[in-house]
């Protein structure tokens, strides 16, 4: 790859997945990990001046945004401060910026999958912050990629998938919201898409902008959980098929924190880059492999 890419957040699970897939194709990405005291804009600015990358991939707050869904104001303020200064640094050093975002920028009231043309209407603090940072990046530079994801799944114990696995392993009935809908997207699939985008931008394709990606097909969380349970039973990671009880979305912890409809349409990404969505069902066995924990 001719384009020099600097990755922030190599220590995150998505960062590790991206590096692994790049390595399999003999693509080298420059990395910058988190300092012991947290993310430092001064350190990042020095790296930009020293390395002169063409593109910066920002996964600095991947876990906080996509797995924990933090809403505490101090954490949000820190993300806002860091990312705003990061955007300024990228503009100053003539470096394009690749920034993940999510379906939280929508209100979740639409009955079909969201496209890039749908108006932003975040209903929680994290979604509001993501929408704000998207707007700031668009205003600051045309050379950017904003890639929105639905449900990103990794094996972190305190993450979205990890919490579901913990529920299933208690042996108690699992209460889940049947009307919570989205695209279950393993991080290996997300990394595949990110790398494919970088490779085409390396060919000077003028394809900057905002895109959606979610593994196919759209599913309710309860349907995903039932499919997951069958894979866990088949791999002997569960001894008994868990009892899954459907409950209202409003009764669940994610109500007020995440959109009820988090489904995203990936058509624009397919048309621009030719990147086809992969079925999440075919990726379940790899996703729950204990070696990936």
From TrEMBL:
Top EC class of this enzyme: oxidoreductase
Cofactor requirement: Mg(2+)
Cofactor: binding details: Binds 1 Mg(2+) ion per monomer.
Organism: Halopseudomonas xinjiangensis
Keywords: NADP, Oxidoreductase
Any single biological process term in GO: dTDP-rhamnose biosynthetic process
Pathway: Carbohydrate biosynthesis; dTDP-L-rhamnose biosynthesis
Protein name, as recorded: dTDP-4-dehydrorhamnose reductase
């Amino acid at each position: 790859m001719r384009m020099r890419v600097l990755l922030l957040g190599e220590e995150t699970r998505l960062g590790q997945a991206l590096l692994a897939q790049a390595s399999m194709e003999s693509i080298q990405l420059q990395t910058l990990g988190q300092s012991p005291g947290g993310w430092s804009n001064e350190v990042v600015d020095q790296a930009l001046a020293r390395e002169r990358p063409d593109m910066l991939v920002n996964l600095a707050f991947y876990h906080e945004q996509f797995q924990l869904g933090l809403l505490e104001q101090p954490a949000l303020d820190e993300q806002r401060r860091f990312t705003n200064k990061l955007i300024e640094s990228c503009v100053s050093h003539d470096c394009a910026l690749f920034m993940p975002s999510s379906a939280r920028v929508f209100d979740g009231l639409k009955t079909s999958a969201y496209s890039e043309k749908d108006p932003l209407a975040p209903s929680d603090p994290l979604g509001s912050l993501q929408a704000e940072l998207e707007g700031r990046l668009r205003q600051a530079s045309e050379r950017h990629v904003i890639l929105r994801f639905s449900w990103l799944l990794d094996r972190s114990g305190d993450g979205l998938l990890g919490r579901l696995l913990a529920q299933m392993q208690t042996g108690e009935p699992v209460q889940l919201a049947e009307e919570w809908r989205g695209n279950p997207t393993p991080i290996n699939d997300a990394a595949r898409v990110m790398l494919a985008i970088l490779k085409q931008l390396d060919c000077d394709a003028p394809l900057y902008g905002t895109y959606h990606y979610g593994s196919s097909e759209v599913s309710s969380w309860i349907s995903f959980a039932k499919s997951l349970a069958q894979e866990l039973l088949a791999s002997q990671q569960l001894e008994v098929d868990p009892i899954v009880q459907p409950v209202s979305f409003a009764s669940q912890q994610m109500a007020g924190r995440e959109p009820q409809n988090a489904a995203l349409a990936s058509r624009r990404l397919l048309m621009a880059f030719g990147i086809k969505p992969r079925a999440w069902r075919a990726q379940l066995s790899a996703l729950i492999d204990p070696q990936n924990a």
